[in-house]
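Usage

Read records sequentially. Each one opens with the input sequence:
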Amino acid sequence: MIKLSDLGQVYIVCGKTDLRKGIDGLATLVKEQFELDPFSGKVFLFCGGSKDRFKALYWDGQGFWLL
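and closes with the structure output:
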């Protein structure tokens, strides 16, 4: 289970993201486009083209969570 108090920083990726991407695609986007470490334990929130579509990527130290 993820404790919200343990998450720390949350990065909101502005603009439209292709939400068909999985863990590998979103982690690559974080690393290459934003020059951030997807393994940092921070939450990366991606917005799709629709107002109600989001994906979050989070590394918990053992594996990624894709929410």
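Summary fields computed downstream for this record:
- The chain is about 20% helix and 25% strand.
- The radius of gyration is 11 Å.
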